[in-house]
Amino acid sequence: MVVPPPSFASIASSDILFYLNGTRIALNASQIDPDATLLDFIRSQGPGFTGTKLGCGEGGCGACTVVIQSKHPRTGILQHLAVNACLAPLVSVDGKHVITVEGLGDSDNPHPLQERMWKMSGSQCGFCTPGIVMSLYALLRTAYSDPAKLRRLTLEDVELKGALDGNLCRCTGYKTILDAAKTFVGEYLAKTQNGGILEDKDFVVPVNYVAANMDAGEAVSADCCKTYPNKLDPSGLSTNISLSAPSIQETPVLAIDPVAGLSGRTAPVSTIAAQAPTPTKPKGCGRADCCQLSSVDEGKKHPWFPRFTFRSYKPGTELIFPPALSKYTPKPLMYGNEDRIWLRPTTLTQLIDISQASPDVKLVGGSSEIQIEVKLKAQTYPMCVYISDIPELFTVSLPTPSRPSLHFGANLPLAELETLCQTLIDAPDDTHTYARGPLEAIRAQLRYFAGWQIRNVASVGGNIATASPISDLNPVWVATGAKVVARTTEGSLELGMDDFFVGYRKTRLPKASVIEKIVVPLDGGPREVVKAYKQARRRDDDIAIVTSCFAMRIDEEGIIGHAKFAYGGMAAWTISVPKTQAFVTGKVFNYATLEDALEVLAEEVDLPYDVPGGMPSYRKTLALSFLFKFWNAVSVELSIPLHDAGAALATNPQDIVGSIHRQPSSGRRDNSDPYAQEVVGKAEPHLSGLKHTTGEAVYTDDIPSIQNEAYGALVLSTRAHAKIISVDASKALEMKGVITFISHNDMPSPKANMWGTAALDEYFLAVDEVTVYGQPIGMIVAQTKHQAHRAARAVQVLYEDISPLILTIEEAIERGSFHPQFDRKIERGDGVDGILASADHVAEGTTRMGGQEHFYLETMACLAVPKFESGEMEIFSSTQALNDCQRWVAQVTGVPRNRIVARGKRMGGGFGGKETRASQLSAILALAAKKTKRPVRCMLDRSVDIQTTGQRHPFRVDWKVGFTYEGKILALKAQLFANAGHTLDISGGVVDRALTHIENCLYIPHVELRGRCCKTNTVSNTAFRGFGGPQGMVVAEHYVEVIAHRLGMDIDHIREVRGLLIGYCFCLYVFPQINLYKEGQETPYLQPVLDWHVPRLLQDCRVTSQYDRRRAEVDRFNQEHRWRKRGLVLVPTKFGLAFGVRAMNQGAALVHIYIDGSVLVAHGGTEMGQDAVPTAASAGSDLQGHAVHNACVELNRRLEPFRQRLGNDASLATLAAAAFTDQVSLSATGYFKPEGLGYEWGNTKKTGNLFMYFTQGVAATEVEVDTLTGDHTVLRVDIHMDVGKSLNPAIDYGQIEGAFTQGQGWATIEESLWLRQNGAIFTQGPGAYKLPGFSDIPQVFNVSLLRDAEWPNLNSIKSSKGIGEPPLFLGASVALAIRYALRSARKDAGITDVQEFRLPLTSERIRMAAGDFLAKKGTVERKEGDRDGFFAYI
């Protein structure tokens, strides 16, 4: 039982007052679960408040972003702060105005930001979109209301200052979002012609088409019907109201309505079929200059497409701050229950009294840490004190001539400290009486500290008190000699930061004390240099791997008088390096001193091979590299040349001193629609896009609560391979709100507990043994989500470990651990071994690729609703395969499938991850619903989703190629090993596709391929966009690189030889395209390559990207730069479209035309005599689209007599009414199966094709690499894709950009890590697992679709091609370009062999592959007796 301090309890209230979208909310918080967050409250308000999403629960994805409008506690300025609602405790919004996406607008009246995001295709799945809209909304409001912004929004504000760093999108590739945001760039303060200022309500921010990388196009009035092309015209409808029959309002004597009147069983005098044609409404909106009238468009040329017209943005008409809150005075608050209470003091004295009375209280500032600890680490904090409403902790005291130091309150938000430092740095030189170095170090670290949602609320004091060993700021405090001023009941206490941190998460801060302020000395003088550095997996919004700060003073004679070096990430707490500091102090500042200092530092920061956190060599190398960078920075800043450096510094000094910085992104699309028909082929916004941007789109967990609904929480194994001795849920069942516990014993039979796709080899709920960490053992069902989660953690499971624990592919191969059902081979040509033996050259190698987490923004979600009649049940699931969902739910509930209705309206991303694995949650939840006889809901937490649902398959491929001296590939022999995980799932199909894409675009006459699925104690891996194809094609890029290296050729000539470069001699003899496929040549699986456009795409991309000129520039750059390198590659792709199983290639549809002319299309998930196939493999349009088309053809055939009778201009409503009265069915089914498929695995004779066609593409990609840190940036990407005749170019462009970005992440940033000690996956959320962010996309991103081509063999729907998966491999071109850059770095380091090929090419691998003297000095070798590394790379 938690007891609050009596003195505070006597003055505290439990009443919380705030506004939500302008509506007053008064809560008695004593009735609220103290674990509830602001997100919980918002979503509990039901329909109309579900736009704010739960994506990760740790403030890393931004899906929960809302805007807090409040008065600044010190300045009183109105501020608009984007915050993470998933982290914010409810107490934090007292006295504030909370604005959610619904507060901006709706589909009928959207905010200009929402409209532009929609029209410019800024959403795909839409789950992340509301959060992104709110981050941008905060940016717009701040640009207008914050005096420091000067009423101006710049490109830098949008893209370079981190406004969107805290938001993730898995679908779009970010470019369209940024372009939509850039339309708002401009001045937010306008003057009249006579110099006066316009009234706020009258000022309109002009649309900035140029900044948004688009042409303004035609001028269209805001009230034109084109502004809302999808808005229904009521006169075009024909329901009971809208039929042409008059009502009593028009005439007192009414005829019988010939259609609607039939419901009254009253026959009309005559039917519509006998009447004269009904006049149709003229085209357009009625205006003479309507854009829809053909005469207006005749002769007009629109050079740029699409042409958008946007709503005007008037910043002076936004939501105001509620006047009642302007007078609101915060008061002490207290609420909670017997397990946890919240206190909110409003004065520092109250806080000190609370801390004295209860020394173990948890002080909460921005709540950026505690919520993660409570939710993800199961920490308990019985008493939490919210301290962000105490004005004394926000004070700021600027440096003065007599006191050159900066003082600021401990609760100053990080974002405000960053702005403050920048303001002081930018002050005119003649006003400076203080050193800028510490300020620059603070600002540098804060720029890349988390996202704005965190920086807006996280406090400096909180960051110090948590004492994270990888804190970005703590090394700055240590190096600069900052001090902490702590308060107790006895007064103030000043503590130096140089020895403040004493252990893991431990400091010298006295118990019951409170950090009041921080003091940063700025008295270093003009000869002091202070620099801070940080390295992470990605530059923006990522926790540090190593962070550091260096301070040094050098006198006029060049003698080092003071040195302080501090590091984070090199020990369990922030450390300084006293030996290195002592060594350099008193010595001459030169390169020789640096060389010796590096030797001392290398010994001082040596790390064990199995150091917690892993990456010992990289971390040590970074520590050395940062000192190297700092030393050169001192040289530049103080103008002390390092004449004795020699070749180590033979480069531009900025290459060493600076960091990679990107420019605002730009790019172009063709934006043309040469194959546009009346409807198909036009670029149209996403049908649900406006609902995405307004938050109205409903996802599974947005479905309103049903009466008596319960919540389910999984109980997962905490062993990777063990016997289950016992499962005890008794303690959990006694907890408040708990209803029951579900286990395998609740299944109707033991076999009902078995499931799988290719083989029934998996248990829904573990029985006697667990074979993976995170395997479901049971489910707690409780009244609320928080109750269910608390109880699930209380279930006690006893284990007995089983050996061996197999995690990696290598371990599986060594132990012969394979899934026995699958062993696939492809052979073509003569004996491969003989061809290899006789080849001019033979090369062999091993290609390794890691997995990839799907990280769909919406985790697995399901709602099971029992119907209490004959075992019927309705399942709402976020799944790509409703058929599978129905199958397994029927099995675990023991009823026929016809009693299970599976529904899925939309998903917040899937990428293959919700094809098979979604059924696991659906089945367990259905079992719970059956047992409890009540609806049960569950949306998995991100960590649970990652542990249980599988990833892209890691691969190891051992290959051998034979080739001629010209570079012609004769034979390929390869063994492919995929880490399937503990069950087979869909792994066989993934390996099949990898086998069939291992030659990519190259014709290889003789092949011998074998694929195996490794059985390991890891999560069962599953489908992911590309489905094995990218893994196969990456292998091709590896052996092509090796061949080029062996022959001394340019890699481009191995694919597309036009002249042969051998060493330094250019042979004029021109070889044909010796390896690239030619039209009609057969693949290893005997399918002819038809409609082959890759040669043209290569040539087109080479020309438009100016590839040859830029390659020469890249090579010249690399010769001139030692520590910065660039790479440029030209990479093709060929991706086969079809399901690998012939029976899955079928689609069915049901199309209804209603009497009002509206149409209902049911496809894919609808049962119509054919089981639905998953929406996957980029085949949705091919299969379901064709089926819909066939149904529509039939309906048009039935309507044709009525068109002839009523005229071609007759509306669909008129035609439908006529058909209805003539008793003609307006429902039709459509069915489609492609012809020619039927490849038989294992049959060496030609049978049928494996794929319907090949989607083809080419990318030219250029990167720049900082070889001292491993950082990189993508300078430019040019993509040319053959998508056939696009159904909707706007969708296809978005798919290309999104797939490329996802592939880029797979190949460079995204790395899944497993803990070697227990087999648990370490990367369970955005804190540890990093996706590409807004700042990772290409700085120039150009996309072009193939035009003026022929596809005579393409029998797809409207001659289009599937595009969802094929471009993903092109994203790997980023890694290939990095490898190109590293070849130069390795050459400079004297390394001539081919770099190991392992993806992802992370910052760690980039840095260590450079192989320079610092990397060699930093390498940590495994010593005898050392354990395996901290992480397992599976």
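Second entry:
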Amino acid sequence: MSSACNVESATVGKKLRSSISLLALESASIPWSLGDNSCIKLSSGTTFNNDIAVARYIARTKPDLKLYGENVLQSTEVDAWISFSQKFLGSSNPDLSHLNQQLSQRTFLVGYNVTLADFVVWTTIRANGLEDSIGSHTNLNRWYDFLSHQSVFLKASSTLLKSTDETKTQSKEDVGKFIELPGAEIGKVVVRFPPEASGYLHIGHAKAALLNQHYQTHFQGKLIFRFDDTNPVKEKADFEKVITEDVALLQVKPDIFSHTSDNFPLMLELAEKLIKEGKAYGDDTPAEEMKKLREQKLPSKNRDNSIEKNMEIWKEMQAGTERGLQCCIRAKIDYKSVNGCLRDPTMYRCKLEPHPKTGTKYKVYPTYDFACPIVDSVEGVTHALRTTEYHDRDDQYYWFIEQMGLRRLHVWEYSRLNLTNTVLSKRKLAWFVEQGLVEGWDDPRFPTVRGIIRRGMTIEGLRQFIVAQGSSRSIVNMEWDKIWAFNRKVIDPIAPRYTSVIKDATVPITISGVKEKSESIPKHPKNNDIGTKTVWFSSNVLIDKADVVDIQEGEIVTLINWGNVKISKVEKSENKEVTAISANLNLENTDFKKTKKLTWLSKTDKAPFVPTIAVYYEYLITKSVLGKDDNFKDYVNKKTKNEVEMLGDPELKNLKVGDIIQLQRRGFFRCDKVFEPETNKPCVLISVPDGHTKAGGKSTEPKPSKGNESKKAKAKPAKEPTAIPTTEASSQEVDKLKGEITEQGNKVRELKSSNAAKETVDVEVNKLLELKKRYKDLTGEDFAAGNRSKKPSKEKKAGNQGKEAAKPKKEKQGKKEVSKESSRLDDEHNNPERKKISRLGLEVTKEENLGEWYSQVITKAEMIEYHDVSGCYIFRPWSFAIWEHIKDFFDGEIKKLGVKNVYFPIFVSKAALEREKTHISDFAPEVAWVTKSGDTDLAEPIAIRPTSETVMYPSYAKWIKSHRDLPLKLNQWNNVVRWEFKHPQPFIRTREFLWQEGHSAFASRQEAEEEVFTILELYRRIYEELLAIPVVKGRKTEKEKFAGGDFTTTVEAFIDANGRGAQGATSHHLGQNFSKMFDIVYEDPETKDKAFVFQNSWGISTRTLGVLCLVHGDNKGLIIPPKVADIQVIVIPCGISANLADSQRKEIYDSCQKYVKILKDGGIRADCDNRDNYTAGWKFNHYEVKGVPLRVELGPKDIKNNQFVTVRRDNAQKTTISMKDAVECIKKLLDSIHVDMFNKAKKSMDERIIRTDNWDNFRKQLEAKNLILSPFCGATSCEDHIKAKSASEDPVDPRAPSMGAKSLCIPLEQPSLKDDTICISPACEKNARFYTLFGRSY
């Protein structure tokens, strides 16, 4: 058979999911036959045996069928639907609503023809038994019915009927996500596997080799197996031989074999080229001194050497002279770079050691970083797969490529394999070998390929595990159990079953009426292809002593693979141990349900036992995950090997080294040494973990048999093991310990409530935890909250209200309300007069309950009114005026920069919104959709903008044609809606909010980046110069940056009341990402070519108002900074009483109005409250709550003395001012208020930003409600790990914040960072790239 796509043979599997292959093959008119599994074999010998892979190959090689769409966008959509079907239709709760919605205006899922998307989704629905579930989804039902009546689908339906073993909930295949390589084409992909010959291959290398092989086969490309032999000190020919054999063991078949040293002559030429072009220089700076210079971002003294001097040094190095040995060649990149890998890295060093391949021909050798891009490029590699730990080196990689004029290729990242209780460093593994703690590099405890194979890992099991991991970039610490579980799937169906008993721990059974004989039975009960073995039956049988410790006379037991026997006599020693048993054969009894199951061996001279040693191994490292500061030598397990002598099945004499077997009720074993009859050397079997128990745990003897449990019991999921009490606890001991715990808990709470020092509290908390640990050891249970003794209830004296407050959570009042009510009753009991106090002021302190305080402040200060739609709020004039002041300032400043205001519609079409999928994915869950007009469904849902990129940029593409149209700088003041979230908080987190969003386009990156930081500076000024709030200017991490952007800058504020950061405003550089998506191009005036513009977006929102309240508010209410206060000065008439004459009253009011006019004429925003139905005291409180910066008190005496009294809101300081100096003095006072407010907040923030390189201190400072400045590598996985591991586990106060730390920003002002500083993440060993501000955040 042959076809246009070189398919030599094709088989379609019998299960329903193989409809995918059948549909693709039928569409391409390729003949096929029915088999167990889908598979196509190409004329080149390559095979594809996965339904998705088969269909994808046919679609890619038969583009005329349009099965992969008609363009790149449609191809991407097809892949998205394939992922959707696997992720969302294979679950127990399939997402049919989304599918139904997408099909509302479509006949096919993608484009106007049937595609793989239709094949896969249709098949998944059918294979998972979802046909009955789609009836209520009109559009989905129509689509499914339409396809089902097409000829090719009819053939799939009739050919592949539902198999009996296929249930409605098909389990997913253990296949990980393999990321599509960018620019990859069938037949043109070249990948490489470049190990260093300095040790044995370990499992991490195996992942690299098998991943590269996956892409080699998937794209029918080539795999280069290249030895990285750039360092003669480390290279050894022996290791090359071993690695080559290991690659063959892995069944990886390279197309090309090479050495980096093959290209040494070319590298010398290119290095000399860079030197002569002034892009590299010779350097003799001592290593330690250079390390410090790089940390401080300072240049080497040799950086500006002349080319002649650099060539002189180069020649000295090539000659291997004494001076040459002191020098190296450095690339002249950027010694000030944030990325340490760009700070003039070493290209060449001088070494006199002979090279295994080139001998003493060379005295200079390239570094891996210099050699790798050269060899990758010249050898034709198209995609260089590297682990994420090399991410920082990517810029350096491409710099070398560009400077040397080499062919550019793709660098593609995947996560390294991290395993628990394991070290993978060759240096650390070598230490174990050198110390004699292991037998060698192939020790079964080692993670080397040879080690795990010797432990019992099969190549197929390892391959399946690697394939299941895919090429994900997510970094996780993998348990060994998962790997062994994959291996078990491979060996369980083929491992022959044998029997053994523990030597010197057996009990003889004498069975009457049995004649000695042998029978041939299958080695595997479910697989006859494995062959047969001889089993001997006799009257003398040995069983394990552990199985019969509680055996009783008259009991029926089952000898596995023989039958039932009845125990007639049990003989025991003086210490009650069973020594011998007599039994009668009872084969007629076939009831095996409740009998004890015993493994056994017959004693016969015709088939002597095989002396056997079972070897069990434990982990070499006792700690699951080693932290960056951990010395692995401190966690070395010195006793990791346990040998058990056994009497083995006579058939074990036929085993060969490498055979994997199962000893009944003991597990799987691999034969490490065969039995030698001549010398009687035992057969050595190494225990193979099966993934059900910890791979490093002991497992020396079978558990005593307790008979078969019911199937129902077996079906129950395993529960977490409970703690086992170490002693029998008396009730008196338990009660005493409960009392101690309660007393200590009360002590801790009292210390916390009195704001005791953190160190003092920590000491007492540790005592509490130790008491709880003793309780668990004593009782086997955790100390429950309900065990705490309760203080006598004061509510009983408060009547029925006290009873209401004491109700449990499940009743009318929630826990929060009960707590509040109880507190109120306590206050009323202790201070009955409190009930008479006006509710004008705040009823809770900021320190006591920040959330309730905030809610009261914004409502009582008339900032917010609640709306009947959750998450939406009414901005009252008091708050909107602040926003207007911010708006006026910023609008004026950006207009100076040439920015013009516009307005774009609030509604976004679905097509526009989904055009930039990377960008919109972050907003997708928050998008609100309009689906109806009156009672009529819209033809297509319309989104309400969550942001405006997708609304504005199609217009930018129309308006920008020439360089003369640039720059284009537009801004709009508008509202946006982001719907999907929990726990809205006014100003801080709302479903609708106000903001400005600026969008600009430039011809050059430099112009665009300059604007990013110009705007960022304006945002800083808003916070610091208007709102008196200090901020940290910085850059967001890759994880936190704006979706779809190149980088994001931010200003971050600090809320000292709860120790949280708050993102103040952001300015993003979008690069050309959006211009490429929306085709925003201009004609370059010089080249006349079309070029994509560089874009920015930037925004600040009404969140600023919430930050203002939280930073400056106190227990009296708001404190509004003068520059944004709608009323800067409030004038209050004083001394007005019922006895005051009307003329005097009028004089006071007139004087107040006079002062207001003077102040207003002087440019001060002033007002007077002359309402006569409120007292002066009430007004004082009212404006204190509202936060008016300055209060003027004016009474009869003040008028007489031509003066007035001012009271500052921020510190209550009173000042008497003469009327003639009113404007000047008040302006100075307002300026002073702003400065003092800023300084107070700045001092608090500076004191609460703690710099630390230590993880324990990091967590300590986080719990102390501080922000932390720590070294960080920048990896997203590390950031996730930091957040997870820093989450609070406060044992005393459940109201304390428990979220982990997230990155707030990478401050633009960086402390000095040493080159050897390690990332703060406890799971990371990489060097830090910069200091990053971490903390809990809104």
